[in-house]
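Sequence in, structure out.
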Amino acid sequence: MNINDNSQKDTLPQLFENEQEYDDWQEKRKIKRLKNNPLGTEKNLNCFLGIDSGSTTTKILVIDENENIVYSFYAANEGNPLKKTMEGLDAFFRQAAEKEVSVRFLASAATGYGEDLIKSITALWKLWRIYQALNMLIRKCRLFSTLADRI
């Protein structure tokens, strides 16, 4: 055995025999390109949430009912996929609030390394949003009551 021989003997077979075979494969894939529909275009947004929380990055995608991308988030996890997911969701809800968009998730899905954590956090996040909406309603009712008492 030659110690200086660094070549690898066990390799996988070549995927494509030639350029034409690769081009044919690319054509058959038919990847659907999604269009963007900037957040704020629709004030009442029915949408779908997808989260991929991998070991190194977190990706969040929100699409509307017409399969247009409304929001996307991509960030390195820095060792904490849950924190990055929360940051991405918080940024989405903050932007929606700034643009006065009412958001309703029709469905959500999570995958990746932190999948179970993310599924739990999305359920908690929905409860938190309900709590915030109720709290705002209570404050508005109190304000209305105070104004009514002054009249």
